[in-house]
Amino acid sequence: MKDQMNHGAHSDAGASFFQNLRLSISDPLIKLMDSIHNPVVAVDSDSRIVLCNQTFGEVVGRTRRELLGAPIRSVVAETRLTRIVETGETESARKIRIAGKAYLANRTPIINNGNVVGAVALLQDISGIEALADELKLSSSTNEELQDIIESSFDGIFVTDGTGKVTRLNRAYERLTGIRRSEIIGKTMAELVTQGYYSESVTLKVLKSGQPESLVQEVKNGKTIMVTGTPVLNKSGDTTRVVTNVRDVTELNRLQHELCTMRTLRSHYEVELNSLRLNQGDGQYVIRSKKMREIRTLALRIAQVDSTVLIHGESGVGKEMVAEMIHEGGKRKSKPFIKINCASIPENLLEAELFGYAPGSFTGASSKGKAGLFEAARNGTIFMDEVGEMSLPLQSKLLRVIQEKEITRIGDTRPVAVDVRIITATNRDLETMVQEKSFRKDLFFRLNVVPVFIPPLRERAEAIVPLIYHFLAKYNKRFGFSKQLDPEAVDILTGHGWPGNVRELENVIERLVVITAGEIIGITDIPDSIRRTGGVGRMPTLSGRPLKEILEEVEARAIDEALKTHGTTRKAAEALGVNQSTVVRKASRYGLRSEGA
């Protein structure tokens, strides 16, 4: 009862105080309060608003008329002015949120005649300061993260400001150079060069040029490092920092050496694997002589790159076989392998075969046109045998294909891109032909990037016996026979000069398998041209033989010699003074084989 009476007395005293205060406040004082930027509000002992400035009204979104007499809690739910009225204690710098904004509040009791008659609060908007604090906190976190990233880098990182003063470096830099950050932080690069820490400074070069710079640098501990400095520019284009990346050249050289070694080993293993694959394949390659093993190894090495290859060798030595090895041992092995004998196709048709033609481009041309062999070999390999037989105009077009990697069909103007590996072969002396101006010099150099010389069979006699038994097995299997060679017959075959090389040997073995009556192929079954000393160049024995047999033997030798000398049935026919069809028919009859038409 007594407390209620005291509260009533205080309330009356407060009411009287604020009534007298309102009467004493003049318009200038009200204007002065409203000019205060910070919100101000006062309450009486009943926590009702008795005084506020215009800024406070703006903060809570009400007019002064609406606020006066209203309970403070109905305006600011989190207010502590009520507590100040109750305790009479002062509170300083307490954070409060009003309408989503942060304020710092200073609250003071109003005392009259020793009694607490109310309380007043002065607020300070700290939203901007709070946002700045959050930004600083984020910036600090980002800076720590950036420092962690720099420190975790394997490469050395070294940073200076726009004057060349060292501001930051990481542990990797200390590890690579042996220089501690305590030695150089805060010093300029000009000082450090003078003191002998560095032979020269990439930072100073960057500051001078304004561009990224690199150099090989010697540091204090004797190490050699590769450094690359990069400028950091502001909006005005001025250099504010230089960031330098550092790598130990010794370590880089070691890695590069290891990489080269691995590539060499890989290439070696690829060659060996391809060699094993060829040796364990279907038996189509019989390689016994040292020279041919060397050629096989060379072919498998060549297969790993796309350089143009020119294979030199006499007719029948196996140029096509080597070309197949190169194709099968390389990355194009799953793509087409197209073969063409340039001497076997008439000159007027060879261009169309190689490059194709547009619809109706010449008499007899298909109405749909036709793709040439270069297009058919796209992404694969084209093997052009007897390339020395090409005419000069056609040589020019082949040169363009090699240089431009595109062809143009006959009768068309649109070029067609072709990605083709070119392997060529010849049994002629192209260098002599270049001197005689029957073969283009520039084309010869383009084709002869990687030359491969295949020796004749007479220079690798150790291969003859394995080849004999290889072809014997091949034709026994083909024709369903099981014929064998008499050892003396093998000696005769081994002693022959084989001017037609492997092709001639294969033809002879096929003929012996086919025409020999018994199971054993003996000396008497071998043709006289091989059995008799002197071979093809000697005249047959005349006595005791029918004239027809003698004439046939002479005819066979003449055609055989002409084919081996001139290479094609067309040229052999011209040399013998007969029609090409006659040479083709009789060569077939006698089991002879030519390079082509």
TrEMBL record:
Family annotation (CDD domains): AAA (cd00009), PAS (cd00130)
Residue ranges constituting the Sigma-54 factor interaction domain according to the UniProt record: 285-514
Superkingdom of source: Bacteria
Keyword Ribonucleoprotein attributed: no
Domain PAS span(s) in chain numbering: 25-69, 142-193
UniProtKB keywords: Aromatic hydrocarbons catabolism, ATP-binding, Nucleotide-binding, Transcription, Transcription regulation
Residue ranges of coiled coil: none
Residue ranges of every copy of the PAC domain listed in the record: 210-261
The UniProt record lists the keyword Transcription: yes
Protein name (Swiss-Prot/TrEMBL): HTH-type transcriptional regulatory protein TyrR
Native species: Desulfoluna limicola
